[in-house]
Amino acid sequence: DAKTTQPTSMDCAEGRAANLPCNHSTISGNEYVYWYRQIHSQGPQYIIHGLKNNETNEMASLIITEDRKSSTLILPHATLRDTAVYYCIAGNKLVFGAGTILRVKS
Amino acid sequence: DAGVTQSPTHLIKTRGQQVTLRCSPKSGHDTVSWYQQALGQGPQFIFQYYEEEERQRGNFPDRFSGHQFPNYSSELNVNALLLGDSALYLCASRSPTAGVVGHTEAFFGQGTRLTVV
User: Fold this and answer.
1) Which residues of B lie closer than 8 Å to A, measured between beta carbons?
2) pLDDT tens across A51-73, in order?
3) Do A94 and B4 touch (CB under 8 A)?
4) Is there a contact between B90 and A97 if contact means CB atoms under 8 Å apart?
5) A100: helix, strand or coil
6) B98 has pLDDT over 70
7) How does pLDDT run across A7-39, given as a tens digit for each residue?
8) Which of A80, B2, B19, B38 has CA 20 to 30 A from A28's CA?
9) A34 in contact with B at a CB cutoff of 8 Å?
10) Contact call for A43 and B45, based on CB within 8 A
11) End-to-end alpha carbon distance in chain B
12) How is residue B77 annotated by DSSP?
């Protein structure tokens, strides 16, 4: 799996879009980008994944740059329940880094 | 669908003892991975089982071993427990298209909280 770099923490106002960046400059051609989140003391929850194209599901959107060296997870209307640690993973073995602590504030 | 289930939810063991943790994958899933998550850190990959064999392994000593049964359920065994083995142990399963390369999403259980005293 490729190494990923994420900001340690981010704040977002409730109801606004949360944009979480991730750098994965060493990603190889067949490695997918996955996003998971973990709410305190629970198992990680799958959010979305993609290879080249942008992806959208009921939870979020994933924007992958054309060179695939970075991506952004977008939560369109963040709620207090979206407060969690968000992990970006580049690779199919699912190697987790430290993640980004997202705090959604009212 | 019960999702990924793990047992027990909490466990306290003494240094030097052995422990076995259990995981039942999500229905229809055949690939199981185990992770260790220390407090304040991200999950660390231990190993992955597919077709009853260990296919990939992270940087963990031989004290950590596993098994996968014909019904795809799995066990994680840890021998000679150390205080540093105290952690949340997570099991994740993936669908049959995952195989050993796999690009499908993994579903995680709620984990087993192991405390070594």
Assistant:
1) 4, 33, 35, 41-45, 48, 56, 58, 88, 90, 92, 101-103, 105-111
2) 998 999 999 999 999 999 999 99
3) no
4) no
5) strand
6) no
7) 999 999 999 999 999 999 999 888 899 999 999
8) B38
9) yes
10) no
11) 36
12) E
A44:B43 CB<8 A: yes
Q: What is the pLDDT of residues A91-102, one digit of tens each?
A: 877 889 899 999
Question: What's the mean per-residue pLDDT of chain A?
Answer: 94
Torsion angle of alpha carbons A84, A86, A92, A93, nearest 10°? Answer: -60
Phi and psi of A82, rounded to 5°? -85, -5
Q: Encoding tokens for residue B33?
A: 């991975």
Q: What is each CA distance from A76 to A14, A45, B47, in whole angstroms?
A: 10, 18, 35
Sign (positive or negative) of CA dihedral A93, B31, A40, B3: positive
Measure A35 CA to nearest chain B CA, in Å: 10
Q: Do B4 and A43 touch (CB under 8 A)?
A: yes
Is the CB of A8 inside 8 Å of chain B's CB atoms? no
C-alpha closest to that of B108 among B95, B88, B89, B90: B90
